[in-house]
Amino acid sequence: MQVGMIGLGRMGANMVHRLLAGNHQCVVFDRSAKAVQELARARAVGASSIADLVKKLETPRAVWLMVPAAAVDATIDDLAPLLSPGDILIDGGNSYYVDDIRRALYGRFSSRGEADFADKLLSAMRFEFGGHLEKSS
């Protein structure tokens, strides 16, 4: 299996080490060139940019984000145009769950060609989801 890992802090780097120990191939990128070089010495394939990481992955790609919560949106914005249908993006960062919901709703509406996301989100908020407290007879 081949995985692209973006974000090589404590958690991302340790995940790469475990994947490499399991004989998986990892293509890695981080803002810190030193972090990339250290993992390249451990048999990971280093990338100099997000675009370089995507280029080095076989399709369909699996890209795992392990970046700080504040960097998730910008990283996805940089990465998304480089991915193809069938590629997988895993957000493994410590972001607030509401941000994950917002991203999922945006992806759902924009993938249908409905560009006015804010209007659609407000429309969707009028619905209540869940079950009834009473059992049906």
Automatic annotation (TrEMBL):
Residues 2-104 form the 6-phosphogluconate dehydrogenase NADP-binding domain. InterPro entries: 3-OH-isobutyrate_DH-rel_CS, 6PGDH_NADP-bd, NAD(P)-bd_dom_sf, Pgluconate_DH. SUPFAM superfamilies: NAD(P)-binding Rossmann-fold domains. PROSITE patterns: 3_HYDROXYISOBUT_DH (PS00895). GO terms for biological process: organic acid catabolic process. Pfam families: NAD_binding_2 (PF03446). PANTHER family: 6-PHOSPHOGLUCONATE DEHYDROGENASE (PTHR11811). This is 6-phosphogluconate dehydrogenase NADP-binding domain-containing protein.
